[in-house]
Amino acid sequence: MRAILRQATLDDIASVAGVSRVTVSRVLNESPDVKEITRQKVQMAIDALSQQPFTKPSSDEFKPRRNLLVLLYSSTQSHTSLSFIQSAMQTARKQGFELHIEDVSFWSCQDASSITHWCIEQRARGVVLLPPFSESEEAMQHLAQYGISVVHVEPKEASEYCPHVSVDHHQAGYSLTKRLLNQGMRHIEFIESSPMNAKNRLFYLGHLDAVRQQPISALSRHLPSAEFLNANGDYQRAECLLSGDSWPDALICQTYGQVLAAIHTADKFNIVIPEQLKVIYLSEELELPIQDDRIIQVCSPFRSLAAGAVDLLVKRVRHKLNRHDYAQSFEPQILTPQQELLQ
């Protein structure tokens, strides 16, 4: 057995310092609202814990707690909504498991070894890894040595040896575009954003697969290609698309800035949203920064994704998961208060 320095968590620091987890977070974020004496207590707790050794057991000696699962994420490196966490906890509870949620943003080290050591210390039976940790093959291998089951959430490259859940952005682009086409729309613009992230690229490819099957305007077959559209800001792009007598039936926006520009420009040219123009937003958030019931929002199915990940993990630890069930995908939600727009 090899002694290493243990990876202290926010709960560990809060317990030793005699303060709340929120206070520890404020100290680590250098908030000015924390008293100096409290700041010193937290720092002393961190110093004490950083020197406390943790003896890593061998794989034969490791005994996990029967019904303990953990979920690891970083609030500074990935978008994890409250609804995702709530759904994961509810699903685990229904299955008779306890789920510990850990934000590793404040860990001094976030590598594969630190993740493994923490899971061993917690005696976890299984772990859900969110990006960027779901990209780590090394973490999966380390955890597997101790028989700790792993499920990845939205890995960039899925492993055939590890269960994972993901969002089918390609199918979402295809389904949404087909709905618009079925309503008689023949001019659909997908506003370019540079660089385009991987999720939006898949959505766009699905969009293309749908429009290629219809005899529609050539403008909806490609991203705006003119240098003027690519070189200027959101408002200039929106004005180019909406000025004149023939504007698109629908605008698909990749950023909220593009959404605001579309709304502002439509108002300027007396184009009524959504009756004369559908504005669609590919969002990472569950709610818009500013609510507007005219906007159609496409976002990740947070609750379904979380429930699917925990269900896979429970099956894995119970040895009831078949290899053909390792990959599960979910289509993004299409949210609008005026649901009849896309029926």
Description:
By secondary structure, the protein is of the alpha/beta class. It has three domains: 1-56, 434 Repressor (Amino-terminal Domain) (Orthogonal Bundle), CATH 1.10.260.40; 61-162 and 302-332, Rossmann fold (3-Layer(aba) Sandwich), CATH 3.40.50; 169-299, Response regulator (Rossmann fold, 3-Layer(aba) Sandwich). The chain contains twelve helices and 13 strands. The protein has helices at 10-17, 21-28, 36-50, 82-94, 112-122, 137-145, 169-182, 198-211, 227-231, 234-242, 256-268, 302-317, and strands at residues 2-5, 53-56, 68-73, 98-103, 126-129, 149-153, 164-167, 188-190, 250-253, 278-283, 295-299, 327-330, 333-335. The strands form three sheets. Strands 4-3-5-6-7-12 form a six-stranded parallel β-sheet, with helices on both faces. Helix 7 runs parallel beside helix 8 and helix 10 (234-242) packs across helix 11 (256-268). The longest helix has 16 residues, at 302-317.
